[in-house]
Specification:
- This protein is of the alpha/beta class and 98 residues long.
- It has a single domain, classed as Rossmann fold (3-Layer(aba) Sandwich), CATH 3.40.50.
- It has three helices and six strands.
- A six-stranded mixed β-sheet has the order 3-4-2-1-5-6, with helices on both faces.
- Helix 3 links the parallel strand 5 and strand 6.
- The longest helix has 13 residues.
- The radius of gyration is 12 Å and the shape is globular.
């Protein structure tokens, strides 16, 4: 298991599928999305945190992130949130499902 907990950016079908794949290899701590699109406070038994204030519950250095935003139309959002998280000090990981 990886040492730093994982925060998954996303709360849709792709995020849920990714959670199912990575939960055996990572300690998934939370999901995060923009506050305006948080539907339920929990997803698959994990808290959903506002991306804008993620530092309050999961500061940089205490976790790693992975993007789970799907569909080609979301490329700009995915890139923007990735760059913003990197600028805020978050490290990212990759996952390749066998």
């Amino acid at each position: 298991m990886n040492t730093l907990p994982l925060v998954i950016y996303g709360n849709g079908q792709m995020a849920r599928m990714l959670h199912e794949f990575v939960r055996h290899d990572f300690d998934v701590a939370a999901f995060t999305v923009d506050a305006s699109v948080i539907g339920e406070p929990m997803l698959d038994g994990k808290p959903v945190r506002a991306f804008e204030t993620l530092e309050q519950s999961h500061p940089p250095g205490s976790c790693q992130m992975i993007m789970a935003v799907g569909h080609v139309q979301m490329n700009r959002l995915r890139a923007a949130r990735f760059l913003e998280a990197k600028a805020r000090g978050y490290a990212f990981t990759n996952y390749i499902h066998p």
